[in-house]
Design a protein that fits this description.
13 helices; globular; Phosphorylase Kinase, domain 1; two-stranded antiparallel sheet; alpha+beta; seven-stranded mixed beta sheet; single chain
């Protein structure tokens, strides 16, 4: 699925003037969006005689005066790296253009090279935004930009190579010999992707709205560690007393938040909606939009919403390829998070920080499909009892043995096991987790204070 524009280019120019600046307050960089400001490969060759081969851009995380480097490549270098962009080097394509696997001759590093399609939906603006964003923003769950090429009319981006491809590759249209993702891996990917969004929304200043969160933009490195890629549509979020930014509607059908699609008013909650769609893809194994399915099932959100209110149909929401190898309690909690994220009203969706807390909790509940009763991993009679409780339709303890305050009665009322009620109980679990963490921190601080006092008393005695 590609990106779609909903207004004409004049409207875009009005809403996003060409001379706009990107000002991330953490490092106070201000960079004009005029493409001529980027050095070309030819500039780089000339600069080599002066001992320079990199373009320096301030880093947002290191503060003023500290530099990070985005390397500049010539088109010839990248053509050599990709064997002249041969078909056997081709990895895939998106709104920006084609992506190739390559190996830099200078360092031997394996990279992914993205070449701008001059007839595509994205152009110089998106190229520049991606260079700036990935030069300024750094996090383990964001893809690393190695460098770029702006030779003549050529526009290319060079990234670290992600050997496992995209999340989409592991969820949809799997060949028969390919193993589907297990439950633990799905929760791990969801938690990591949410952390990437959290960094953009809560750590960057002003916040950055990703605007194109979808399964094909989540890349996977070894160990299925997720990283967000494709920042060409990213926008700086509202500041001060502003509640939103108004912009041309760009995104991918099926992932785009309804209020943004209708009004062009963009907030961080727009990203939360898109995250909810991807999380539903992880849970169900279905595509956000699938025209091959029967009428009424083609739009994932439209199909899933009615099922949220009937506990007897929760199992229908689980990916059949999991073959029942998932914890029922974990499924309920995952559905609760997804249902909150895809609320029609943006104000009722959670902040991404709360989603990270919930998904980190779920990802840490390691599920063992080989254990008796398909339970969470544990040890001893306590875990056996917990598994027997789950088989009997009740779970009253977490893995650590702390009471969750929740009793899951699969024979009980629908209201008790609805995602709304599940969300309420999950929030109670999360509050307990926060309280435990705060208590531990308080205890550590107290012990440290006592050690310092004891040390001071000892020094005074021996003074």
């Amino acid at each position: 699925m590609g990106c779609f524009p909903c207004f004409d280019s004049k409207e875009e120019e009005k809403l996003n003037p060409v001379n706009e600046t990107v000002d991330i307050k953490q490092g106070h960089p201000t960079v004009s969006s005029n493409i001529s400001k980027l050095s070309s490969g030819g500039d780089r060759l000339r600069a080599r005689s002066n001992g320079w081969s990199k373009r320096e851009i301030p880093s947002p995380k290191d503060g003023p005066g500290v530099q990070i480097a985005a390397q500049i490549f010539t088109f010839r270098e990248l053509a050599a790296a990709t064997k002249n962009f041969r078909p056997e080097s081709f990895l895939g394509e998106g709104g920006f253009g084609h992506v190739y696997k390559g190996q830099l001759e200078s360092t031997g590093q394996v990279v992914a090279v993205k070449q701008l399609d001059r007839n595509g939906l994205q152009g110089n603006r998106e190229f520049l935004v991606e260079v700036l964003m990935l030069s300024l923003l750094h996090h383990p769950n964001l893809v690393n930009l190695i460098g770029y090429c702006a030779d003549g009319d050529q526009r290319l981006l060079v990234y670290e190579f992600m050997p496992l491809g995209s999340l989409e590759d592991h969820l949809h249209d799997l060949p028969p010999e390919k193993e589907p993702l297990d439950w633990n891996t799905r929760m791990k990917i969801a938690a990591g992707a949410a952390k990437g969004l959290e960094y953009l929304h809560d750590k960057a200043n002003p916040p950055v709205i990703y605007r194109d969160f979808k399964s094909s933009n989540i890349l996977l490195e070894e160990g299925f560690q997720p990283k967000l890629s494709d920042f060409g549509l990213a926008k700086l979020g509202p500041t001060g007393d502003k509640s939103h930014v108004s912009t041309r509607v760009m995104g991918t059908y099926g992932y785009c938040a309804p209020e943004y699609a209708m009004t062009g008013q963009l907030t961080v909650k727009s990203d939360v909606y898109s995250f909810g769609v991807v999380f539903l893809e992880l849970i169900t194994g279905r595509k956000a939009i699938d025209s091959a399915r029967p009428h009424g099932e083609q739009n994932l959100v439209t199909w899933a919403r009615p099922l949220f209110n009937d506990r007897r149909k929760f199992a229908k929401l689980a990916d059949p390829r999991l073959q029942g190898r998932y914890p029922m309690r974990g499924l309920y909690q995952a559905l609760a998070v997804a249902s909150m994220c895809i609320q029609e009203e943006a104000a009722t969706r959670p902040l991404i920080g709360d989603v990270v807390t919930a998904l980190s909790y779920l990802a840490n509940q390691a599920y063992d499909p080989n254990a008796a009763g398909h339970g969470y991993r544990g040890s001893g009679d306590k875990d056996d009892k917990r598994q027997r409780d789950e088989r009997g339709g009740r779970v009253s303890k977490n893995d650590e043995g702390a009471s969750s305050g929740r009793r899951w009665d699969l024979e009980g009322s629908e209201k008790e096991d609805s995602p709304r009620e599940t969300a309420r109980m999950l929030n109670r679990d999360l509050e307990r987790e926060r309280a435990v963490a705060e208590a531990k921190m308080w205890g550590e601080n107290l012990r440290e204070k006592r050690r310092q006092n004891a040390r001071g008393s000892f020094d005074g005695t021996n003074g």
